[in-house]
C-alpha cells in the first residue's frame, strides 16, 4: 500500500533527523552523526528482525532507507536552524512514525507465525528501541526513564489493532485507528508533562 | 524433562524479579521496569540464540516466559517488601538459575553442531549476559567488574559438564553435578566477598 | 588465500590485545578482560553476520579465533610492559586489521546478495563496531567521538575497493590498494591529531 510506504519513509526521515541532531548536540562528527541517525531510524526494526529471524534485516534490502538517512544527515547539517523551527511538524510526523512502526512491526511478527502477545511486544520494540540503542551508544542517561509512556502508547496501539482485527477485516481502518491510539496517548502524555514539549530531544521517541 | 522446565521458569521468574527491582530502584516506571525485567530474564538466552542462528529466539515461542515476566512485575511492584525479606531464597534460586541456564545454553549450542569450546562460552553468555544487557540499558557502572566470578563459575560448570559427559552418559546426574559446581563456586565467591551479601542488586547475576 | 587468513588472525590478535589492555586498565578481572578482548576482536564481524543473516557467526565455526583471543589474554597479562613497548608495531597491525576487516566484511556482505552501498556500510561495521561494543560494555565515554575518522577511513576504503573492482578483476591488487587507503587515511588522521599518538587506548580502532 503506497500511503504506508510513504509514511514509513517520512517516519524514517524524521527519526533519522532526530538522531543526527542528538549526535551533533553531543559533538559527534559527521560520520558519527550519520551512524547515530541510522541507528535511531532503523535500530528498532533491526532488533525486531534479528529477534524474529528475518535476516538480512529489512532496510538492507531497500536502498531507499539508506538514501533517506543520508538526506536526513544533509538536512540536519545544513538546515539545522530551519528544522528546529519545524519542531511542531517534526513532532507530528515522529509520532505518526511511532504509530506506524508499531503496527508494521506487529504485522511482520505475526507473519512469521509468532503469537499476538509477542507481536505487540515486537511492535513496541520496532518503534522505541531505535531510540534506546541511540541512547546507549551516546552514553547519555537512559531516555527509557522518560520514554516509558511511548512504550506504553505503542503497547496500547498494538492491543487496539489486534482487538479491531478480531472483530472486522478492515485492515486499513484498523491501522489508522490503532495508529491514532498511539498518537493520541503520546500527545496527551506530552501535554501532561508539559516541560517535555520544549526540547526536540526529549520529544523524540 | 519436567524438573528442568520447572527450574527454568523459576529461574526466569527470579531473574526477572531482580531486573524489575533494579529498574524500580533506578526510578524507571512500570513499563520501563517490565522491559528491564524481561531483558534480565531472557537477554542472555536471546543473545545466544541470535549468535548461533536459532531464531525466532526461544522465549518467543513459549508464552509461559512472557507470563512469568509479567508475574515478576506484579510481585515486585505489590510485594516488594515481602520479596526483600525472601532474599536468601531468591539468591538460592537465582544461583540455581545461573547453573541451569549455563548447562541448557551449552546443550543448545552443541545441538546446532558447534564446538565444545564455543558451547562452554555460550553457556556462560546465556547465564550472564541478561545482567550485562540490563546494566548497559540502565547505564550503571558495569557490573561485569564484580560479576566476573559468576562468569568464571559458569565457564567452570560448563567444562565440568563436558568432562562428565565424556566419561559417562548419565545426563541428569551430569547436569546436577555441573549445576552444583556453579552454585558452590558462586556461593564461595559471595561468602568470600562478604559485603556483596547485603544488597539484592549486587547478588544478582 | 593464505596471506588473508594470516592477516585476519594477526588482526584478531592485535584487536583482542587492545581490548584486554583496555579492560585491565579499567580494573576488570581476567575473565572480564577476556570477554572484552573477545568482543573487541570479533564484535564487529559478529554484528555484521547477525545483520546479514549469516549465523552461526563466523568466528564460532573456526576454533583458531578463540585460541587467538586466549593467546591475547595471556600475552597481555604476562607481557604487558613488553607489549606497550611494541606500540608502534601494534598500531601498524591494528590499522592493517581495520583495513582487512573492512574489505572482508564488504565481500561477505556482497556474497549474500546485498547491495554495494550496504556492503560498504557493513565493511565499516565489521572493522569499527567491535570497539564500539567494547566501549558500551565498559561504559566509558563513547570513543565513537574520536573514532569517526576510522569509520570514514573504512567507508573510503570500501568505496575504493568497489571502484577498483568495477574497472579490473585483480582482486588481490584491489584488496591491497583499498586496505592501503584505510591505513593511509588513518595514519594521516593520527598524525594530524598528534596527541592521539601517545596512548595505546586512543589509538585502538
Describe it.
Three copies of one chain form a homotrimer. Chain A has helices spanning 2-25, 30-52, 63-78, 80-85, 87-111, 116-138, 144-167, 171-192, 200-203. The radius of gyration of chain A is 16 Å and the shape is globular. In chain A, helix 1 packs across helix 5 (87-111), helix 2 runs antiparallel to helix 6 and helix 5 packs across helix 8. Chain A contains nine helices and no strands. The first copy, chain A, has one domain (2-203). Residues 194-205 of chain A have low confidence and may be disordered. With 205 residues, the first copy, chain A, is an all-alpha fold. Chains in contact: A-B, A-C, B-C.
The helical percent of chain A reads over 70%
Stretches of chain A where pLDDT falls below 50 for ≥5 residues? 194-205
Helix count of chain A equals 9
User: What is the terminal-to-terminal distance of chain A?
Assistant: 25 Å
**Main beta-sheet strand count, sense and barrel state of chain A:** none
Biggest interface reads:
A-B, 25 and 21 residues
**Portion in beta strands of chain A:** under 5%
Output mean pLDDT of chain A: 84
- Give the helix/strand class of chain A: mainly alpha
* Oligomeric form: homotrimer
Number of domains of chain A: 1
Q: For the CA atoms, what is the radius of gyration of chain A?
A: 16 Å
N-to-C SSE series of chain A? HHHHHHHHH
Features:
homotrimer; 205 residues; mainly alpha; 9 helices; 0% strand; disordered C terminus
